Amino acid sequence: MEYDPHLLATLRRKANQIRQESIRMIAAAGSGHPGGALSEADILAALYFHVLQIDPQNPQWPERDRFILSKGHACAGLYAALAMRGYFPIEILATFRRFGSILQGHPDMNKTPEWI
Length: 116
Prior knowledge:
Elements: H1 5-29, H2 34-39, H3 41-51, H4 75-85
Helix pairs in contact: 1-3, 1-4, 3-4
C-alpha cells in the first residue's frame, strides 16, 4: 500500500473525534472505561473509515465485513465510530449506559441494533 498523507490525516482526525465522543459519553454517564475506548480509537478509525466493507444504509448486507469487539469495556469507542459512520444519529451517544438505551455499558446483541 502506498503512503497517502491525506488519508493518514483524515484517519487521525477521525480517531481524535472517536476519543472526544467516547469521553463525552463516559462523562455524561458518570461511569465507563475511558482507557479502552481511547486506546482503540486509531484502530477503529482505520477499520470503519478505510478498511471494512460496510454499508450503514444496508447494515444487514450479506457480504459485509464483521467486526468483533473482544474487550466489551471499550464499547464507547465502538459506539462513537458507528455513530460517526452513520449507523445511528450521533445524538444517541448521549444515552450511553442509560436505562432503556440501545448503548449499554457492554455490547449486547439483544439491546443494540443488529449491526453490532
